[in-house]
């Protein structure tokens, strides 16, 4: 039994419980969507859990995020701002459909058994910590266990991604799904030839104990920031715009350098790489002022700082407890919460 799965036997049934954790990109963001390289960690401070048990009919339990009853129009506005227009049920439906399709295509016969499934999540929403894909990963793990199906670990992230891109029309890359399936710290190489020929890249585990002192900060009020910063990097990359192609190539190579720095425990170099990752990003992406303020505040205090994903959360190296305490205080003034990511 893996550490993220549990089977609880009761007098009347068997409960399957699975979990998947938040993630933070350390280096290489956002090159994973452009056949690049990344170095990422799973953040066990936050997670999504799924409970599944056999039942006469297939039933997905509605949670608070799925409710359609509100106290007022302002309650509706705040709720949509915090969790989006859809809760977790569309994610679970997409995971179930993609799992079933995979089994049919692989000639795996599923027994005629139904189940009830329930989910919960403590991953902050709308701040780039991959709460949606965590629900899908946990659902896939529960389905694999319930139907006794083994999906190869290297392909599972691709199946999770397809649940979002093909079933729900969500733009998604492989990085988040890889680290949530593998956990710990993982170096990923998404070279085009591998992705297009077999559907997944090369994924290499890195010893989390070699990581330096990391902090993670996420803005607790990002959902109330009006409007989204427009970016058209994908179209510019596909047109072959030199600035975009060259910048993303440089960002990808930072992940390779970062992997070597972690293995050598060369934290001074790693610190510089994290800062450089974000600085390169600003060449081709528009950065929301709220996010920029978080980055600048952390750097002013002596810490390195870069995005964990697409924005809303930052990650970096801090020197000592005094610096960490200053990060707590100064980032709190920006409505940002600071944590020490727990990586196993």
Describe this structure in words.
With 344 residues, the protein is α+β, with helices and mostly antiparallel strands. The protein folds into two domains: 203 residues, Ribosomal Protein S5, domain 2 (2-Layer Sandwich), CATH 3.30.230; 130 residues, Alpha-Beta Plaits (2-Layer Sandwich), CATH 3.30.70.890. It contains eleven helices and eleven strands. Strands 1, 2, 3, 4, 5, 6 and 7 form a seven-stranded mixed β-sheet that branches. Strands 9-10-8-11 form a four-stranded antiparallel β-sheet. Strand 9 and strand 10 form a beta hairpin. Helix 2 packs across helix 4. The protein starts with a strand and ends in a 5-residue tail after the last strand.
Summarize, please:
By secondary structure, the protein is α+β, with helices and mostly antiparallel strands. Helix content is 42%, strand content 21%. Strand 1 and strand 2 (14-27) form a beta hairpin.
């Amino acid at each position: 039994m893996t550490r993220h799965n549990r089977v609880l036997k009761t007098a009347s049934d068997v409960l399957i419980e699975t979990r998947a954790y938040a993630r933070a990109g350390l280096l290489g963001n956002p090159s994973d969507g452009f056949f690049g390289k990344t170095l990422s960690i799973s953040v066990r401070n936050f997670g999504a859990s799924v409970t599944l048990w056999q039942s006469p009919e297939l039933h997905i339990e509605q949670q608070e995020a799925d409710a359609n009853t509100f106290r007022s129009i302002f309650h509706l506005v705040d709720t949509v701002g915090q969790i989006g227009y859809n809760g977790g049920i569309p994610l679970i439906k997409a995971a179930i459909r993609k799992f079933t399709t995979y089994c049919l295509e692989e000639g795996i016969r599923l027994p005629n058994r139904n189940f009830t499934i329930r989910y919960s999540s403590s991953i902050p929403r709308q701040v780039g910590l991959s709460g949606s894909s965590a629900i899908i990963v946990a659902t896939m793990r529960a389905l694999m266990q319930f139907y006794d199906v083994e999906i190869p670990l290297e392909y599972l992230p691709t199946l999770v991604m397809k649940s979002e891109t093909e079933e729900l029309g969500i733009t998604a890359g492989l990085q988040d799904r890889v680290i949530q399936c593998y956990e710990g710290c993982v170096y990923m190489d998404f070279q085009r030839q591998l992705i297009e020929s077999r559907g997944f890249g090369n994924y290499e585990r890195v010893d989390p104990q070699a990581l330096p002192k990391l902090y993670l900060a996420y803005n607790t009020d990002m959902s109330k920031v009006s409007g989204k910063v427009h970016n058209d990097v994908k179209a510019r990359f596909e047109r072959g715009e030199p600035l975009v192609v060259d910048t993303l190539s440089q960002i990808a190579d930072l992940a390779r350098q970062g992997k070597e720095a972690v293995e050598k425990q060369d934290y001074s170099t790693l610190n510089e790489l994290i800062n450089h990752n974000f600085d390169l990003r600003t060449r081709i992406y528009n950065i929301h002022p709220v996010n920029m303020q978080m980055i600048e505040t952390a750097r002013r205090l002596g810490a390195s700082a870069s995005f964990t994903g697409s924005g809303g959360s930052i990650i970096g190296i801090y020197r000592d407890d005094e610096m960490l305490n200053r990060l707590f205080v100064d980032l709190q003034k920006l409505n940002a919460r600071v944590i020490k990511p727990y990586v196993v």
